[in-house]
Amino acid sequence: MPSDTAAITDQLAPSAQNVSWGWVNPWTIGTAVIAGLAIMPIAAIVWIAAAPGEAIWSHLASTVLPGYIFNTLVLMLGVGAGTILIGVASAWLVSTCRFPMQTMFEWAMLLPLAMPAYVIAYVYTDIFEFAGPVQEVLRDLFGWTSKRDYWFPEIRSLGGAISMMTLVLYPYVYLLSRAAFMEQSVGVLEASRVLGRGPWGSFFSVAFPLARPAVVIGVSLVMMETLNDFGTVDFFGVATFTLGIYDVWLNMNNVTGAAQLALTLLIFVIVLVLAERFARAKKRYYVSSGKYQPLPRYQLLGPAKWLAVAVCAAPVLLGFILPVAVLGFYASAHLNQFTNSDMLRFAGNSILLSTLAAILAVLIGTFMAYGIRLRGEKLLKTIVRIASLGYAVPGSVLAVGVLVTLGALDNSIDGTMRRSFGISTGLLLSGTIVAVTYGYLVRFLALSFGSVEASLTKVTPNMDGAAKSLGHGPLSTLRRIHIPMIKGGLATAVILVFVDAMKEQPLTVILRPFDFHTMATIVHEFASDEQIGEAAPAALAIVAFGILPVILLSMAIRHSRPGHSQG
Amino acid sequence: MEGLHIHGAAHAYGDNQVLSKISMVVPGGELVCLLGPSGCGKSTLLRLAAGLEVLQEGSIVIDDVTVATKELHVPPEQRRIGLMFQDYALFPHLNVIDNVSFGLLGMARAKARAIARERLDQVELAHLTEAFPHMLSGGMQQRVALARALAPEPKLLLLDEPFSGLDTNMRASIRQMTLNVLKQSGVATLMVTHDPEEAMFMADRIKILGRGGKILQSGDSHEIYYHPNNEFVARLFGFMNTIKGTVQNAMVQTPFGPVPANGFADGEPAQVLIRPEGIVLSSGGQDGGESSGGIPVEVNSTHLLGHFSVASLKIAADRNGAQEFYVRVHKEFLPELAGRITARIDPEQSFVFADDATVPGEPMLDDLNILSPELKTLLSTGLEPQDKVQKQAEAAE
To answer: Which of A187, A198, A201 sits opposite B85 (nearest CB)?
Structure first.
């Protein structure tokens, strides 16, 4: 039997654990190489930014930089505040109260996660701009004729960008704070009631402080996404760092300047990463006893119950249902787009790139997670931590880093080839899908690694021991115990990376080959030309793929309810 | 009238009737213990008294104030009660002193902290005021929880399985300290537990709650142990040797001789329950002790378990060897040295009840017999191995 032979060969082969080579082992070296490749773009930015180039920094600092900083900060704070308000309120209602449609909202609150901010930005601009239906109706109603007759908020503004991003990013805060509220032992809240505080007092003195680390994690993820956004700020013309980098890079053609801006933006990122790490460390202590009871819920009555419905329904309607309806309406008028050969080619590009990124990311993620499991040494853990920093780095920053890295590599290959063989290879990798995939991998490695690592924890160390004691070596154990147990986690990781890669805009826009489009870039292109109708079918397709992770998450929510799983 | 008065409280979760018309009183200054297996509704009764569940029938009065009827529900924060949770429910984001002063509302912070400090001093934790709950051992957490519940000087204190989270070594000392603190404060206390030993140690009065939420017997520890008024109560304290028979001439026949039928009419089926310590062994002597009224037995096995031994034995004359009996002996018991042995029944430790197969609680004890070897059954004085299950669950996480 093949499995038996495998077991025997496993035993004969020197096991990785038996031989202690220190850091010289396939796992550590392999992971170090991966980490090196992952950190390269960021290192390149630091290198270039520090290099003496044109003295553009002082120019930038005296002109656009204060604006970038101001806009970026206001955007982050605005989106942060908005997502806390919506996310925490809806999570609290859904996890502690009983009101109409409450169980549906438990998962429905996640729907806007499927919607990239740039897509709803296009949709709402179409609805709220001067020539849009809302202002038209208002003008008809009140007999206004020109812009001067009335005031209407400008959607293409900083405030507009804050609203758009809040509407699609609050699910991060919702998800994490909901989990935190569910984790809180009911006893803690009841203890607060018995000790004399009412429901509101208990929320502010116990429930919210306990959920605070989770909220901080959620908000730092939201802010990382905010920094990553390109489509919205570009479309609204809000001069943030991302836009500045793009502008200095492509329009002013200045590598050093772009790198210097990127480096400044990285400072914001570091603050966020530290906040997240700190909150995660703190969160461990905030989990009270492992005993759960089914949560008793407050039954909301009368107006309170309809207010709760409104609080939960509004973000879902505005962040998902309305935009999908509008896109559907436009798409139905542009059905030919679905069969248009260009469009199909772009869709094919999207699927090709996303599949490539997803499979590679999960393979690498599995390699790293398994390496840590087999050899849980500190060095390896540190390397992995560095390798997965990319998730926090905005796409625009990574793009610049990737271009610089690959450009240097191409140049050196070209130089070597010319010196040795007199052949010029030109730019081998820059401006190819290799560059785009590289960028995706750096950015999404943490996602795949995290998913694989989480599912690996299901396999307890004793199971490894059991397999070993029954005569299975590491490879046989991997094949017969680990892979069957984590394949669900692997599939989840593939889906998550696939969908995120499909939505990815800034990396793709900067790194794509000339005249090469994915759905995300063509949507941007159409929208920039105010051709929302033409953009609708592709935008709708992106949203449709985005539903996949939402389904996964809502299934996880259903299974993870502590009160129900423990009985 | 000080204390807690419950009249005709009934509660159902859907179709599941967990409490049926319970009435009871916890007088001021007394400690009443509700003893029963899990699922008998004892925690529900606590939660009703605390206001964490809405009363469906009956009424609850605390210190002459009606806090719950079918129409009235005073929210927990207005009842002025203290509740100590089984998992303590300490606030993990607050340090010890802030936990204890949490319930001291409407007074200056300095005063609240002074009171909290006093309470902590009482439970010998004054040196840990700034520590956070996750830094404390289980026993310390329990004491913080006690101090927190007592700090606002509640009119009634409710304790939900207060010692179940502690390991055996610590339990005795914490129990003693808790009892001292409660007696000092003089607060009316209602405690629920599934551990008979705990109830006997702590309570002025024990109420046995059976399945379906009925109070089966009420009394002090002596009454409950020596005069159980039904089979369920008798079996609470662990394994029982059971002999089934029919009443004849106001006696039930057992291999150890006839036992007075305790009022059952002739011809009725009855059973005799004998505690393992209720079979008294004698040895030596020419007649092997037969003169003292014992009958000869054969010892099958014996195990030393610390301060006592258990032995399994058969009636020597009973060649078919149908029934094995278990005996607890308070010293090391070495039958091969003992020669001939006789056994008799201690009437104080044996009880006659109707042989009613449908007595509540019996199936559960049968489960226990199947689950564990006889030895464990003998050892378990508790109703259920709940602690063990909990610990296993915790270890698995």
So the answer is: A187
Integer CA distances (angstroms), B355 to B268, B350, B352, in order: 8, 15, 9
Please give the residue of chain A at the shortest CA–CA distance from B158: A194
Q: Which residues contact B96 (CB under 8 A, 6 or more apart)?
A: B120, B125, B128, B129, B130, B131, B132, B133, B136, B144
The CA-based diameter of chain B, rounded to the nearest angstrom, is: 81
Q: How confident is the model over A22-37, as pLDDT tens digits?
A: 566 777 888 888 888 9
How far is the alpha carbon of A367 from chain B, nearest alpha carbon, in Å? 26
Q: What angle do CA A10, A13, A15 make, to 5 degrees?
A: 85
**Chain-chain contact of B76 with A190 (C-beta, under 8 angstroms):** yes
In this predicted model, what pLDDT tens digit does every residue of B325-363 receive, in sequence order? 888 887 777 665 556 788 888 888 889 988 765 444 443
The token duo for A383 is 């390397």
List residues bridging with B309 in a β-sheet: B304, B329
B353: which strand partners?
B271
**Degrees to nearest 5, angle at CA A246 with A244 and A247:** 65
Tell me the HSE value of A277 on the side-chain side, using a 13 A CA sphere.
Answer: 9
- C-alpha closest to that of B289 among B312, B256, B318: B256
**Do B52 and B44 meet the contact criterion of CB atoms below 8 Å apart?**
no
Extended strands (E) in chain B:
3-13, 16-27, 31-35, 57-62, 65-68, 81-84, 156-160, 188-193, 205-210, 214-219, 241-248, 251-252, 259-260, 269-274, 279-283, 295-304, 309-315, 325-329, 341-345, 350-354
Give the tens place of pLDDT for each residue, B257-297.
888 887 888 888 888 999 998 888 887 554 444 556 678 88
Kindly determine whether residue B105 and residue A197, on different chains, have CB atoms separated by under 8 Å. yes
Interface touch B148/A195, C-beta < 8 Å: yes
**Residue partners of B80: CB distance under 8 A and separation at least 6:** A196, B62, B152, B154, B155, B156
Task: Give the distance from residue B71's alpha carbon to the nearest chain A alpha carbon, in angstroms.
Answer: 16
With both helix axes pointing from N to C terminus, report the angle between A26-50 and A378-387 in degrees, rounded to the nearest 10. 50
Query: Residues of B with CB below 8 A from A194's CB?
Result: 50-52, 76-77, 79, 81-83, 103
pLDDT given at position A53: 63
Q: Tens digit of pLDDT for each residue in A248-296? A: 887 877 888 888 888 888 888 888 888 888 888 877 777 655 455 555 6
Domains parsed from chain B with CATH numbers? 3-231 (3.40.50.300), 238-380 (no CATH)
Picking from A198, A285, A288, the nearest residue to B89 by CB comes out as A288
The label of the residue with tokens 């329009």 reads A251
Indicate the residue type of B289. Answer: G
Residue A338 has pLDDT above 80, yes or no: no
Tell me the shortest Cα–Cα distance from B32 to chain A, in angstroms. Answer: 20
**pLDDT reading at A316 higher than 80:** yes
Please provide the average confidence, as pLDDT, over all residues in chain A.
84
Dihedral of alpha carbons A131, A132, A138, A141, sign: positive
Residue type, position A191, single letter: A
Which domains, and CATH codes, for chain A? Answer: 35-561 (1.10.3720.10)
SS3 B350: strand
Please state the length of chain A.
567
Cβ A192–B102 below 8 Å, yes or no? Answer: yes
pLDDT attached to residue B111: 94
Tokens of A136: 């038209």
Structure tokens at A86: 């919506």
> Which residue ranges of chain B lie beneath pLDDT 70?
1, 284-293, 318-322, 334-339, 356-397
A490, A452 Cβ separation under 8 angstroms: yes
Residue found by looking up tokens 């005799």 in the block = B272
**What value of ipTM does the predicted structure carry?**
0.72
